């Protein structure tokens, strides 16, 4: 559950220190959480129109909590000598009981601003709307879709698994026209020269080959692909033209009826090109008694699985120049064979505006790029690619970009979003078809930029090899005998990024490669630091839960459970050979029990785990700052002080851990001679007692002592605890 606070505006705020206006922002505090709006400079009636979202840990306690909304001036935008640190513009305190339970029940209310103290001077009011809402993270979840029928049925043999290269995407119809060459073309100029080129026309769409100067037997070898959505005309025209200075001349043409064009699907053999005689507009094949020549063409209707698809000119990009067309084609940059991964890049939706979107997918050393679809917010690529899996514990990355290099622009391709899928989380021979949320983290916060529709299937034909990979080293043998340092790894990563960005043809632009390789992941981010801290906290939550459970057993909170633990303990003490079998049987039972609740969807970007939803705007602004910083000195000073505060708490925790370890070392170091003498004397006594007493007796006595009833317990700390806390540490020796 989330608490949403919509901050609309404030009116008639009081100016401080003789200023004509104020740089106001709103801070909302609830249950130990804080969120703030952006600053509105120099306005006594600022408008924010922002929604701040805070977590509700326990909805049952909401009525007992209070939402504190305060209006404050931004000190970083004012002269520190003129603005006193206690300046305050007003606050509002709203009881949790009055918060609307849904957005439909909430309405905008104006609250008068209250004073903080008796002598405060506050004026004005603020417009707020408070309500409970579903977690924002729900909009970033996966949406499962049904895979195509061939993918559901699956291949029948291992060979067919690899051969069916387009079984997970929707077939898209295309009309292919391959212009190979021409011969015996007539002379058109007075000089007897001919500069021929070919126009391929289908309705309102036209593809043009390059022109060849002074050539009556030209060779083009170009392929044109017209989308099935554009097959509205009844005829296809292939026209040979002569390029001239003022007006291009008509040489001849070939006309095809759409109903006569054959269809072809792989693995059928490619359609062989044929010679066609050129005719004029009236169907005559001769001009002044001379033939108009012949042209070699191949015309067929196919799908995106055709071999000619990647290099063809597409009618979707009809408005681009030949140079700009290179940046729109799909491309496999490295085609490297027992374990395979198939990924179908189907479509995207909700990209916003008219984007020229394309996808880049990377796994290992093989990069692929889909074609660019121009001017659409819902592109449908329906392209499928196959990778050889070299290790299960690897990740495939698919990113979506907006192409800004179509018209020789120097702008960078805009990032739309990225999806990562870890192969080890996929079941074999199952098709995962989902809409993955595309998110962009900006200085203004987390934004959903659309959804990417992917179909993923992991196929294994050699189970022994796949299972054996779990026991093999992750890195080459040389790394373990002569490991590479961290600095060298960063340098090698940078050089690899440079090679990928420059040596591909056509090249992937630098910003694309950097985004795919996460080159800025090592930069400091307070948001990532918080996320990693809570990951560690979650990691140890199981240990804490076991500790609380054992504490409840020792305190007899549930007498029946405590008695059962006594019985199990006595059985294990009497039969110690059952301890390890019991432990591993327990682990087996837990795994079997969790099988029915196993994850059914592949993992995706977790906005809650990343702390991206509730990140402070200034923390995000710091994360996207350049290195070295480009911010004003006041902002840098504030961030430095904040970092010092966080580092101070870390320093305290590290010092406490060091103190506990030093106390353990001082047991035998004679730093405290009396404590060391007591410890070694007790050690000798315990050694003698354990030598003459059977182990089962010692274990039973210690176990029953730890599980004794609270009536026999003291509320004071135990003697060993008090003894340990009095041991010396090196904290007194620090400056």
Automatic annotation (TrEMBL):
CC per GO annotation: membrane
Pfam families: C2, PRT_C
Membrane topology type: Multi-pass membrane protein
Domain called C2: residue spans: 1-111, 156-276, 319-436
Signal peptide stretch: none
Keyword Repressor (UniProt): no
Alphabetically ordered keywords of this record: Membrane, Repeat, Transmembrane, Transmembrane helix
Cellular compartments annotated: Membrane
Similarity comment: Belongs to the MCTP family.
Record's protein name: Multiple C2 and transmembrane domain-containing protein 1
Taxon lineage: Eukaryota, Viridiplantae, Streptophyta, Embryophyta, Tracheophyta
């Amino acid at each position: 559950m989330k608490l949403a606070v919509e901050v609309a505006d404030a009116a008639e705020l009081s100016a401080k220190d003789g200023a004509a206006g104020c740089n106001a922002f709103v801070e909302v505090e609830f249950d130990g959480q804080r969120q703030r709006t952006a600053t509105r400079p120099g306005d006594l009636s600022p408008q924010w129109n922002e929604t701040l979202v805070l977590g509700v840990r326990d909805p049952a306690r909401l009525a007992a909590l209070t939402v504190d909304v305060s209006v404050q001036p931004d000190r970083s935008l004012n002269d520190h000598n003129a603005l006193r640190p206690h300046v305050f513009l007003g606050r509002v305190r709203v009881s949790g009981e009055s918060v609307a339970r849904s957005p439909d029940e909430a309405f905008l209310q104006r609250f008068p601003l209250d004073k903080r103290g008796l002598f405060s001077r506050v004026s004005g009011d603020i417009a707020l709307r408070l309500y409970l809402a579903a977690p924002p993270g729900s909009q970033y979840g996966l949406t499962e879709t049904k895979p195509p029928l061939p993918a559901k049925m699956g291949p029948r043999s291992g060979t067919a698994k690899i051969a069916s290269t387009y079984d997970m995407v929707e077939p898209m119809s295309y009309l292919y026209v391959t212009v190979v060459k021409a011969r015996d073309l007539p002379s058109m100029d007075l000089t007897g020269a001919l500069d021929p080129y070919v126009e391929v026309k289908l309705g309102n769409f036209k593809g043009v080959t390059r022109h060849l100067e002074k050539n009556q037997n030209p060779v083009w070898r170009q392929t044109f692909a017209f989308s099935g959505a554009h097959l509205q005309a009844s005829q296809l025209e292939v026209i040979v033209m002569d390029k001239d200075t003022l007006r291009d001349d008509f040489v001849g043409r070939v006309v095809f009826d759409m109903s006569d064009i054959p269809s072809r699907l792989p693995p059928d053999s490619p359609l062989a090109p044929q010679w066609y005689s050129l005719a004029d507009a009236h169907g005559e094949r001769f001009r002044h008694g001379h033939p108009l020549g012949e042209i070699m063409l191949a015309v067929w209707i196919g799908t995106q699985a055709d071999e000619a698809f990647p290099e063809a000119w597409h009618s979707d990009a009809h408005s681009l120049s030949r140079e700009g067309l290179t940046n729109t084609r799909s491309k496999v940059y490295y085609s490297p064979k027992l374990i395979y991964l198939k990924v179908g890049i189907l479509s995207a939706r909700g990209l916003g505006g008219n984007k020229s979107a394309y996808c880049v997918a990377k796994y290992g050393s093989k990069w692929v790029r889909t074609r660019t679809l121009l001017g659409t917010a819902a592109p449908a690529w329906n392209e499928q690619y196959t990778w050889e899996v070299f290790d299960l514990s690897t990740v495939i990355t698919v990113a979506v970009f907006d192409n800004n290099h179509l018209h020789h622009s120097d702008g960078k391709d805009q990032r739309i979003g990225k999806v990562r899928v870890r192969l080890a989380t996929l079941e074999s021979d199952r098709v995962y078809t989902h809409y993955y949320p595309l998110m962009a983290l900006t200085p203004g916060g987390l934004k959903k930029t659309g959804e990417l529709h992917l179909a993923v299937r992991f196929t294994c034909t050699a189970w022994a090899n796949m299972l054996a990979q779990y026991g093999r080293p992750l890195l080459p043998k040389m790394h373990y005998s002569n490991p590479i340092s961290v600095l060298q790894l960063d340098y090698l990563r940078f050089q690899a990024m440079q090679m990928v960005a420059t040596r591909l043809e056509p090249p992937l632009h630098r910003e694309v490669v950097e985004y795919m390789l996460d080159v800025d992941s090592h930069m400091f981010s307070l948001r990532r630091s918080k996320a990693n801290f809570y990951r560690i906290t979650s990691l140890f939550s199981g240990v804490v839960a076991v500790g609380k459970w054992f504490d409840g057993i020792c305190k007899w909170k549930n007498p029946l459970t405590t008695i059962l633990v006594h019985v199990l303990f006595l059985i294990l003490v009497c039969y110690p050979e059952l301890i390890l079998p019991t432990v591993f049987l327990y682990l087996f039972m837990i795994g079997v029990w969790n099988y029915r609740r196993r994850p059914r969807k592949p993992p995706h970007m977790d906005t809650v785990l990343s702390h991206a939803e509730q990140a402070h705007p200034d923390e995000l602004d710091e994360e996207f700052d350049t290195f070295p910083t480009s911010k004003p000195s006041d902002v840098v000073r504030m961030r430095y002080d904040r970092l010092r505060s966080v580092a101070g708490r870390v320093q305290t925790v590290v010092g406490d851990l060091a103190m506990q370890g030093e106390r353990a070392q001082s047991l035998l170091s004679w730093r405290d001679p009396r404590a060391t003498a007591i410890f070694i004397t007790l050690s000798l006594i315990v050694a003698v007692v354990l030598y003459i007493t059977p182990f089962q007796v010692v274990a039973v006595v210690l176990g029953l002592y730890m599980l004794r009833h609270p009536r026999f317990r003291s509320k004071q700390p135990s003697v060993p605890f008090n003894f340990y806390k009095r041991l010396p540490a090196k904290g007194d020796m620090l400056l």
